[in-house]
Design brief:
single chain, alpha+beta, seven-stranded mixed sheet, two-stranded antiparallel sheet, 7 helices, 38% helix
Length: 213
């Protein structure tokens, strides 16, 4: 077995909570817990830079998110990679065979969001992945209410084999919830719904007061 490069050892020392990502012997749950810490950090970066990103298209935002998730020689996040179709974001770990898929939508009507769930669950997922991710880019105010409404709609419609009501995310990150879906492989797919807050208050013309945009 080749020795671990110094750069990777240094990365693991600085981020020990992400070690399960690179460990082929970690459980799928340990892997997902570590990945979701990494995803949350990438989302925070997008939110910190919302003033430059809020007007970007859905595709542009997903390209930026994928770039933030990628770490040279460790993690690759691809845009429009093929998995029975072109997936918005495919996350692969170079030291293992594991991958996770993600679909992204600009916040809008529930039917549009539901179609994204269908793409993730029924079209792209093979059933081998324990978890998949829905990223909801929200450039309007009150993301808390908007994600709560999406959760209520999911529980009302139970789309694409959703099993029971949504649950709070184990990670406890804001504006995030989980649903379980029966996959056509017979497996159960866990979908983590992640809200991304890209709303920016804009100053009123001729004054200093900030108003929602």
């Amino acid at each position: 077995m080749e020795p671990v490069p110094d750069s990777i050892q240094a990365w693991l020392l600085n981020s020990p909570e992400l070690r399960p990502l690179l460990d082929p012997n970690s459980t799928d749950e340990e892997f997902d817990d570590a990945l979701e810490i990494h995803i949350a950090d990438a989302i925070r970066w997008l939110e910190d830079n919302a003033n430059n990103l809020r007007d970007n298209s859905e595709d542009s935002l997903s390209t930026t998110l994928a770039g933030r998730l990628s770490i040279r020689k460790l993690i690759e996040a691809h845009r429009e990679m093929n998995s029975k179709g072109h997936v918005d974001i495919t996350i692969t770990i170079l030291s293992t065979s594991r991958k996770r898929l993600g679909e992204a939508k600009l916040y809008g009507s529930y039917p549009k969001y539901e179609r994204g769930i269908g793409q993730l669950v029924e079209r792209y997922s093979t059933g081998r992945e324990r978890s998949g991710y829905m990223f909801c880019y929200v450039n309007k105010s009150d993301i808390k209410d908007k994600m709560a409404r999406l959760r209520e709609e999911c529980d009302s419609h139970l789309p694409y084999g959703q099993v029971g009501p949504a649950s709070n995310s184990k990670s406890k990150y804001n504006w995030t919830f989980e649903t379980q879906h029966t996959h056509n492989s017979g497996e159960t797919l866990r979908v983590v719904h992640c809200g991304v807050n890209l709303h920016v208050q804009q100053p009123e013309k001729g004054g200093s007061k900030l108003t929602p945009s």
